[in-house]
Amino acid sequence: MTAALELDRVSHSFRTRGALDDFSIVVHPGEVVAMIGFNGAGKTTAMRVLAGRLRPSHGTARLLGRDPHDVSGRNARRFGHLIDAPLAHPDLTVTENVRSAARLHGLDRATAAGATTAVIGQLALEPWADARSAALSQGNRQRLGIACATVHSPEAIVLDEPTSALDPRGVVVVRDLIRASAASGAAILVSSHHLDEVSRVADRIVVVHGGRVVGALEPGSTDLERRFFELVHDADTRTPDPERAS
Amino acid sequence: MTNFTAAWETEWLLCLRSTIVRIATALLVFVIPAGAIGAVALSRSGTTATVTTAKFAPYASGPLAETHVLVAAQVMSVALLMAGGFAMAWTFGQEVASGLAGARTGMATSRAGVALAKVLVHLTWLTGCVIAVVGLTVTASALVCAVTGVPFDDGAWSRAGLALVAGLLSAGLTIPFGWVATVTRSPLGTIGVLIGVVVVTQLVTALGGGAWFPYAAPSLWTEMGGPEAAAAVGLPHLLLAAAVMPAGAIAVVHAWRRLDDL
Prior knowledge:
The complex is a heterodimer of chains A (about 250) and B (about 260). Chain A is α/β, with parallel strands linked by helices. Helices cover about 75% and strands about 0% of the residues of chain B. The chains are: A alpha/beta (about 250), B mainly alpha (about 260). Chains A and B meet through helix 2, strand 5 and helix 3 of A and helix 1 and helix 5 of B. Chain A: GO terms for molecular function: ATP binding. Chain A: It comes from Myceligenerans salitolerans.
């Protein structure tokens, strides 16, 4: 099966700071892959490369089989992402933002209106439908961002820490949306700091450390935390820390 | 550029909701006509000479309606540059600085299409302001003439045409600030560049090179520097000023297409 999202030996540095080091990952249609790692491990950078927001210095990125910087029209219609800032303008209401996102993602006016209503309901944003997004709490802004990224039912989705600011109900809502999208055949890549949360939503968990994938964890298995720290420790032991070496 | 209609609709909505656009529109459309009528009235009021009335001395003579419209054209040529420059800094710079431009990556509507829509919406908004300013000034001038019994001279219509063209040229001069906002990734930095351009324009004009400087030509053409300076502004100078708009549009669309590290 052709991967919908793929990074093949991608490396990138920001001036003197290495961000990605021979980073490889694949996500196939219908599966949810979670990246887990410390702050600064390279998860967000990897996602930015996949979304076409950063040109890596080495390696290959593929989004639905195409270079992410060359995705347009029909292929772009099949992709959605939420990395850092959402596709939501503070001056527009929740409904206006989601409808604009739907139109910008390629839906016609009639389809965009229906999809907007559906995703606002799916993410439990109805009470704030007419509120300006600048007035929303951080958690609701995050839900709005997810709504804008998924309103057009994309086939490839990249979500950077989608539940970080959400309350328990919001976490369940987003988890249900991710699982429903995967069940419909979407390839989904998420990142998180929370092992128990990714264990509930992911089909595979990859551990990212020092800009590379250093191992995998089995979702649902016991003692994930201990296994995670073992993988990170083994990675540190195998590869001397360049900062400490200098 | 695919799906341009969606970009156009979104940018219009953002323009209507923008606080900067609302404030700038109110200032341009109401303050300029009122200021023009007031400045001419002050200059012809016969009050004791002060520094202020000395500045308005050029408005103390000449056909009344023509002078109203000419003053409005002079003020508008500078005010439009400032208002439009601020708006460009907001519409382009804020999205790049906040990360919203990054969220626009990988969509069915390309970033280049979004940038072009921003430029066209911006120009449409400013064109509307120019037409409103000139229309309201002519209307107010006609009312003043009717009330005071002064004939509404036909020369006012040719001045209205000059004001429209000078205003549209000034609107076009704001487009490159979208490119500045994109490459600096800073709305405030762009405001700094805007202020710098205004300062440089003043210096170039003082040194006598204003007609060939695109940012000075429209203002000089409205007799901001006096009738002699206006007479030195010809079609080549105005065409050079007009060329700034398409050049700026191409530059900002290209910059948005090539944005990286978002």
